[in-house]
Amino acid sequence: MSKTKSRDHRGHVQMAKLRYKCVTGKVRFRDRREAIDALHRTQLNAERQREDFGTTRRSETRCYRCPSCRGVHLTSLTSYITAPNPGAR
Ligand SMILES: [Zn+2]
Questions:
Q1: Dist. CA 2 → ligand 1 center (Å)
Q2: Is the model more confident about 32 or about 9?
Q3: 26-60 burial, b for 16+ CB within 10 Å, e for fewer?
Q4: 35: CA distance to ligand 1 center in Å?
Q5: What is the model's pLDDT at position 58?
Q6: For the whole prediction, is pTM greater than 0.85?
Q7: Mean per-residue pLDDT of the chain
Q8: How far is the centre of ligand 1, averaged over its atoms, from the C-alpha of 47 (Å)?
Q9: Residue 14 CB: number of other CB atoms within 10 A?
Q10: How far is ligand 1, taken at its centre, from the CA of residue 3, in Å?
């Protein structure tokens, strides 16, 4: 009768959790469409906030492909790398 030995997990790479987190700490979207969808909702909320309170802290205006996580983020900055995408939108 032997007790169940606890297995050690050597060799298991713990990358699964990191995959969905970006170094920027920003909200990550899978693709551009998802980001734009969220952007529209954000802008709608911002518009409502401006009507109700006269001001808003929501200022996300565009999305960009993140080079470090390969995801898409929203940003209020316009000075970020402007990727050439003629014809898009
Ligand atoms: Zn990222």
A1: 48
A2: 32
A3: eebbeeeeebbebbeebeeebeeeeeeeeebebeb
A4: 12
A5: 87
A6: no
A7: 79
A8: 27
A9: 7
A10: 45
Between the CA of 52 and the centroid of ligand 1 the distance, in Å, is 33
SS (H, E, C) 6-70: CCCCCCCCCCCCHHHCCCCCCCCECCHHHHHHHHHHHHHHHHHHHHHHCCCCCCCCEEEECCCCC
Q: Residue 24 has which token pair?
A: 């920027």
Tell me how far the alpha carbon of residue 74 lies from the centroid of ligand 1, in angstroms. Answer: 10
How deeply is 62 buried, as exposed, middle or buried, from its count of CB atoms within 10 A (0-12, 13-18, 19+)? middle
Rounded Cα distance between 89 and 85, Å, is 9
Residue 29's pLDDT band (boundaries 50, 70, 90)? very high
CA of 76 to the centre of ligand 1 (A): 15
State residue 57's pLDDT score: 87
